[in-house]
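My current task is to audit a protein record that another person submitted. I have pasted the whole thing underneath without changing anything:
***
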Amino acid sequence: MSKSKRKLEPFVAKQEAAQIRENIQNYADKETMEGVLERLSNMKWPQRLETCREYRELAGRDLLQELQASSEPSLHVFIKELLTDRILADVQELSLYFQNVNSYYRELVEFFCLRTNIALAIVSTEYNKSQDISIAEELGEVDDEAVKTLLLGICKGEFNENGYAPNETNIRKDALLLAKAPKTTRWTSRDGKLHQLLQSRSHAYIRDVIYDFEEVTGENFLDAIEAECSHAFLGCMETFDFVISSTQHVFAKKLMQCFLDGNVEELVRIFVNVIEQANVAEIVSYYNDKYERDFFDDLGSVVELPLFDVMKRVVAGRQKDVPKKTPTENGATLKPGKLTQNGTLTAPFSRPSGSSSQNSSNGNDHGSDREGSGHPNKYKFFTHGTVSPLKTFDPYRDIHDFRIAMQHYATNDLPLIYLISSKTNHQRQVLKSVYTEVFDAVLIDDVMETVGDELDYFMAALLLRPDEFDATFLHELIETGNETSFALLEILCSKTVKELKAIDQQYKKKYGVRLSADLAKQLTRNIDVVLLLCELAEAKRVVGWNVDRMAAETDAREMYQQFYRDSPDIDYFVQTLTARSREQLRETFRTFRKFAGIDVLTALEPLFSTEFAEALRLLVLCVEDRVSFFAYCLNEYIQNNDVRNLIRLIVSRSEIDLVEIKAAYQGFYNITLLDDLRPLLDNKPFRLMSGIVLDK
């Protein structure tokens, strides 16, 4: 007969209070105090409050005062925060926000999203009792109607908190409904699709719908909101998108900010919140991986030793609950690449040493198991930028900080580097407008004059709008007459339809001619390559995830037949590879492999000129796996000491998928991207590059 599992002992506040009293009375050493605080931190806050009440009845004294009197001064802030009534603290926090509600939209979004439905219900009841007004009535003072609707939708705690298992059919259905809904109401109306999701679905489900919306429409979720809604609502949705994407990232970023500011009280407050709302050991592990730093090294640089020892002990006590990382397909430790039969990871696009060409079969099978109708593994491949919207963004404050940083740049370049690298491009554009409004000057001109030639190109990449910078860069490439430029191919192959259209519009505005027309006029050496570049610049590619298997089979058979012809039809390949959607092309490539037994490039590359074959190779690799494609491009630029293109590419991906690109790079080349960049850059450019490459 097997032994029955031992039941957990029920929590008895009176016993806990008696044990703590005995420890305080009979022992005064450091180890005992750490044990008491760890014991308290392992309780939920209602249990701690009940223990405090029992202690007061038992000892006739307040537990908070007793612990502070018996402990080192550095521990007082931790003890106070640990024994604080969380509901009372939340009510006070909300009260502060509602004093000037129109200035705290982002903070309110984060507050409501980070709390459970039960917690929000309790806070709402207590707020009504203590303030004699409901949260909904307070939100009635919000000026922006769209923001008001959003906050009213998430303050009620109606999110679905049941276990989440992705249902791709429902996700696609809701994404399509969101895409087809009237643009004037889908985000902001109480009857709109977003509001319906907020009241019935989990955070994870809404996150997946947002990602699928981007795939269905071919446009960025926040870009769509920016075009249709107010700046205030955009700011709220940036915060909402950030919070629901990863609770671990939210808390890790808050902790990092406290370390940067040296704010011990705020650090302890967030640490105790982490204890309440998540597994603190998981957050610490995530912090170490995310920032490539040791949490306890950073902690030791900010807090005194007694507090450090207690916080470290609390984390260690939760460590046993953290699942071990395994390099499985579902895990975060899996890096993009090709897994060989012996289990090793190879770089599919890396060139063998001493070889000027690449065996194109190296990477064509990569990721083939995740494409096709249904997209069974699509939700494992979300991407993340290293730069995300700065939550504490205040343009009117920041422009004055810019002025001060520029004045002291000669002796200390770090403030200016931080001010620029910590913000998204959209926030930098806002800064430029406010700077001009307040100082009647152009921010980019003042920055360029300050940094000089050493960082001028880097600053242009950061401060110009992406379409404006890319249009200028492409014009320079075209003026050189080098149609086989690796950078020219990389840009036109990798940009989305929306990005290409924006670049074309900016190009025509600046140079009076469309990009495709200028390519056809200026580049003449290789007609086939020029034709491919012009078609890519026209941005004719179909956008979406729909796959037509019959069309894919037809295209695959036609490609196969080209292998037996004396002169392949260049126009057919150009039109097919530049007009079909990326998903459709992946299905075509997979179908080709099934009945040909080899991949597309291996079969067709010998039929073309070297230059055209190289252009096709890049396009196919980009279609099959963009993250690995960018890792390969970065390595090409590093090998050729091409600093300008390195800066351009890293800045352009910093808000999109640079986290995954870094992981792919390290997996392929056995060195971190930042370490590989170090020999190419002087001190100041490297510090600025570090600010972009390192996760925030």
